[in-house]
Design goal:
Layout (H helix, E strand, L loop, with lengths): L5 H9 L12 E3 L13 E7 L2 E6 L6 E3 L5 E3 L20 E2 L3 H12 L4 H9 L7 E3 L5 H18 L3 E7 L22 H18 L5 E6 L3 H7 L4 H23 L3 E5 L9 H17 L6 E6 L24 H12 L7 E4 L36 E5 L39 H9 L6
Parallel strand pairs: 6-8, 7-8, 8-9, 9-10, 10-11, 11-12, 12-13
Antiparallel strand pairs: 1-3, 2-3, 4-5
Helix pairs in contact: 1-4, 2-3, 4-5, 5-7, 6-7, 6-8, 8-9
Bound molecules: beta-D-glucopyranose (BGC).
Length: about 450
């Protein structure tokens, strides 16, 4: 698999947000929006949902189609709409589209590093493909810009591009922890909002670009929490909404050709012998009840975690778990899925370069002394594993260490969690610098 950097150059020429008029695919309105409300010529400002309006190609006479929720979205004349995902691994025959927001974060971070050799290594991370997290409604409009960029780039180079995304905005998100609590709550119409304000607009955008291949990780932690954390009241309360929301997401995204891997926790979570069977049953029942959407390709493991794909020897914290690394977890889970669920996997290795760092296997927050890991590749050493990937953008924080924050989680103040950590998802410069200097293989 090759990596392209042309997306970065295309981005520079688009730089949408400072313009007096919003560009095609740019945001042009919505609750809280303070930017331009008129659109570049050839596009029309169209209400996607109460939170964003977007400049869609075409004039006001462009056709209008009903989304599954019944809301109306303008679509460019000539767009072809839904398509079945191509069978097989989405990583075959494609080149990654590089994440523009991560490239910006990394470029800014590298400039802050005074040692020129380290700064050059840091800057090179922008060329390593990393997933784009759609972790709130506000990320949807920029995503439209990326699809447009990818489509144009693909047309000019003839090289098929793969846009890697994470679907991550469930109501009552992160039910067993606090650090990544999200914007929707079940008590406040979250189940309906997830569909109409989040999934439907994403699907409507993807429909505009049937030529761009998209791979998605679906809702990190959600199903794993339903396997092991139903004793937590917030998870028990969220169970049915998580199931119906994930079902809706995979059905709708499948209908527009997205290839999906459902999040499956990691070896130290669902890999324990007592959890493997219940986990397999949950994945199978969800998939079958959803009508076996063809876009579901398999499972994603180790997302935002720190485990090795293949550990040289068991880390002492794995305490006798026969699945002491991700390869073993996958090999132990796959037979339980049998032919009832597609047993293909992707494994996050973005921050797994250094091992034996933690005091407990359950420590997940900004683990000290972590280094960037194996680069994304389809050379995985297992026919079960489609690709080694970087899902968590290394340098973005796992959770704040500030105990007075409403999203403070005690895991982020443990002695093996890096101190002075900002809010989840925001940039953590010192942590990034350690990932760079401790990268294995080195950068
Ligand atoms: C955060 C998200 C963020 C993601 C990737 C999660 O822990 O809650 O906001 O997008 O990590 O950095």
């Amino acid at each position: 698999m090759k990596v392209t950097s042309a997306g970065l150059f295309a981005l520079v020429s688009l730089l949408p947000f400072a313009a007096a008029q919003a560009p095609i695919w740019g945001q042009c309105g919505g609750i809280g929006w303070t930017g331009p409300t008129t659109c570049a010529s050839g596009s029309t400002c169209t209400v996607g949902n109460p939170y964003f309006s977007q400049c869609l190609p075409g004039t006001a006479s462009s056709s209008s189609v009903s989304t599954p929720s019944g809301s109306s979205t303008s679509t460019a004349p000539g767009s072809t709409g839904s398509t079945a995902p191509a069978p097989g691994s989405p990583f075959t025959g494609t080149t990654y589209f590089l994440s523009p927001p991560y490239a910006s974060e990394v470029a800014a971070a590298a400039k802050l590093i005074t040692n020129s050799a380290t700064a050059a290594k840091a800057a090179s991370v922008a060329n390593i493909p990393t997933f784009i997290w759609l972790d709130s409604v506000s990320k949807i409009a920029p995503f439209g810009t990326y699809l447009s960029t990818a489509s144009a780039q693909q047309k000019s180079t003839g090289q098929k591009l793969l846009v890697p995304i994470v679907i991550y905005d469930l109501p009552d998100r992160d039910c067993a922890a606090l650090a990544s609590n999200g914007e929707f709550s079940i008590a406040n119409n979250g189940a309906a909002n997830y569909k109409t304000l989040y999934i439907d607009p994403i699907v409507a955008l993807i429909k505009q670009f049937p030529d761009v291949k998209i791979v998605a990780v679906i809702e990190p932690d959600s199903l794993a929490n339903l396997v092991t954390n139903l004793s937590v009241a917030k998870c028990a309360n969220a169970q049915s909404v998580y199931l119906s929301s994930v079902t809706y997401a995979i059905q709708q995204l499948s209908a527009v050709g997205v290839t999906m891997y459902l999040d499956a926790g990691h070896a130290g979570w669902l890999g324990w012998p007592a959890n493997l069977g219940p986990a397999a049953q949950l994945f199978i029942s969800l998939y079958q009840n959803a009508g076996k959407p063809s876009g579901v390709r398999g499972l994603a493991t180790n997302v935002a975690n720190y485990n090795a794909l293949v550990a040289a020897s068991p880390d002492p914290i794995t305490q006798g778990d026969p699945s002491f690394d991700e390869m073993l977890y996958i090999q132990n889970l796959a037979p339980l899925l049998g032919s009832s669920f597609p047993a293909h996997f992707i494994v996050d290795q973005g921050r797994s370069g250094q091992q034996n760092l933690r005091q407990q296997w359950g420590d997940w927050c900004n683990v000290v002394n972590a280094g960037f890991g194996t680069r994304p590749t389809t050379n995985t050493g297992s026919s079960l594993i489609d690709a080694i990937v970087w899902v968590k953008p290394g340098g973005e924080c796992d959770g704040t260490s500030n105990s007075s924050s409403p999203r403070f989680d005690a895991h982020c103040a443990l002695s093996d969690a890096a101190p002075n950590a900002p809010e989840a998802g925001t940039w953590f410069q010192s942590y990034f610098e350690t990932l760079v200097t401790r990268a294995n293989p080195s950068l």
